[in-house]
Design a protein that fits this description.
Blueprint: H1 2-18, H2 22-35, H3 40-49, H4 56-69, H5 73-83, H6 89-104, H7 110-123, H8 127-140, H9 143-154, H10 159-175, H11 180-193, H12 198-207
Helix pairs in contact: 1-2, 2-3, 3-4, 4-5, 5-6, 6-7, 7-8, 7-9, 9-10, 10-11, 11-12
């Protein structure tokens, strides 16, 4: 089998470099790993193909099978962050939720978790996704990312939902970012949506 893997590797290299057929190369690297799970030549070659847009998804699929089986969560997150670039909206959110869960759990990586949570909230602004991005902002201190998320979501919302997010943004500017000018602008935006909004009027009185 070692000899056969040598042959597979040489053939995969030909497919990849000379015939411009990275998908066929990925299939051969997968066969090598089926024979020997720690075949470093195949793993290294697949890692390089992760950066090739034409073969990235296929290479990531093979590598994830290995990394998930060996509890290499940091590598799993790294590959998922790359794969998400090629996914449609619904699948992208599911992948980001996996990343968020791994970062919140065993990896304890609040910065990457914040990034995933922000992207989920911006794509799917629900109470649950908002709560998660606010939680990560509190843990990471990345209130500027939270503010940007609120801003992007505001562009999608109208009525009471938009007012609610705008009020959260105004309070964020006051309490955590200490940007009075930005807070004033947001509260004026609230009044543009809800002329008699008491919270916005009180906040503007405090600013003045």
């Amino acid at each position: 089998e070692s000899f056969r893997n040598d042959t597979r590797y040489r053939l995969a290299q030909v497919r990849e470099t000379r015939l411009s057929d990275p998908a066929a190369a990925v299939a051969l690297y997968r066969e090598m790993l089926t024979v020997q799970v720690d075949e470093t030549r195949a793993i290294d070659a697949l890692e390089l193909l992760v950066q090739n847009d034409d073969a990235a998804v296929q290479a990531i699929t093979v590598l994830l099978e290995r990394y998930e089986a060996s509890d290499r969560s940091a590598d799993v997150v790294r590959l998922l962050e790359r794969r998400v670039l090629f996914e449609e909206a619904e699948q992208r959110i599911e992948t980001l939720q996996v990343i968020q869960g791994l970062c919140a759990g065993e990896l304890s990586d609040v910065d990457r978790g914040m990034s995933a949570a922000a992207r989920i909230y911006q794509s799917q602004p629900t109470d649950v996704s908002r709560s998660e991005v606010e939680r990560f902002a509190s843990l990471s201190g990345k209130y500027d990312v939270l503010a940007e998320s609120y801003r992007l979501v505001l562009e999608q919302l109208e009525g009471a939902d938009g007012v609610s997010v705008a009020l959260r943004l105004g309070e964020l500017y006051l309490q955590h970012l200490e940007d009075l000018q930005a807070a004033e602008s947001v509260y004026r935006e609230v009044l543009g949506r809800d002329t008699l909004n008491v919270v916005a009027l009180d906040a503007l009185e405090r600013i003045y």
